[in-house]
Amino acid sequence: HPTGGVAIRYDPTEDIGFYVSYMHGWKSGTYSATVDLFSGVIVASPEKLDSYELGWKLAIFDDRVKLRGAVFYYDYYNYQLFTNNQSFGSNPEFVTINASSAENYGAELETTIEPWSGARVLVNFGWLESQFISFYQQQIREFRTPGAGGNAIVVSQSIDNSGNRLLNSPQFTASIVA
Q: Is 37 left (phi over 0), alpha (psi -120 to 50) or beta?
């Protein structure tokens, strides 16, 4: 699948700059072989990503303070998710599955301060919103009818995870290094 992008950069002065970019990415599909009799081989389709970013940089006080920032939006199609899969009567297994669509958007701010030669302070802050736009999972469950020796009934149940945050996507991050 073709991947790539385009970026436009504009630096009106040596201390001020702006950029805008669009990138298209692709991750190949995968197979997860399971020992579960109901799941068998789980196929994850290829993931596609379109990302848009707008950023800027500014250097002030004779280059002793540098500010960089960006806002971004990521649009995923067939988002691949590495997750735990477990059906009744089987052990948990880790598999790769697809969410139909997901998105991330947010902003980053980075500040570098050099108060004197040889000293440097880095301050970073990030804000991230993420969610599954469309993500349904099938779960196979076993129910027993009441009474001793009840019959087992196997039911496939659809679970709607749409609107939930993507895994490992904290809303806020910050760091300070001196």
A: alpha
